[in-house]
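B., you asked whether I could sanity-check this one before it goes into the benchmark set. Here's the sequence:
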Amino acid sequence: MNRPLEENASSLEHHFLIAMPQLRDPHFNGSVTYIWKHNADGALGVVINRPARLPVTDLMNELKITVNPELDGRLNEEKVMSGGPVERHKGFIIHPAGTEWEYTMAANDDVSISMSRDILEAIAKGEGPDQYIIALGCAGWEGGQLEREIIDNAWLTVPADPAILFSKDYDNMASAAAGVLGVSLSQLSSLTGHS
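And here's what the prediction gave me:
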């Protein structure tokens, strides 16, 4: 019987979930998800390697946020991430801890999640954090659901590495994250078995 995460059980906060090859869900196939909340009630995370077609500049324009002309080209090259199938119209900005915005939550001592307009305005002016991920949507699991999926070999879990978290090498992010454990995704079978 699978029980939800107990108070003294190991939390997956500040971990990466790497989709195993057999995970065919189109929202998560090939994905790396940063887990920023995990307790007995469930888990929340943001997919960090799925660039949407939406450039950051276009998002700023939609929100009527003026972009510093010197940053326009760079922000036009940066893409908003498809953060997951939940709350797709809500923005999540992952950034190094240190600066508090109007709505900021600490994921741990090194990383925070902000969900307010003021951080986007700061980024548009060039006054925001040096590293960040802007995502629309998130991923969520009910209590015990993520644990069951891990037991069923849907996910490989790895402690989050900020160098990988803020990398722009989206195509190789899953391999880099798995490499933290010394695992090669190309050698994992898409077939699972249980003894």
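One thing to flag: Residues 1-8, 190-195 have pLDDT under 50 and may be disordered. Otherwise nothing jumped out at me.
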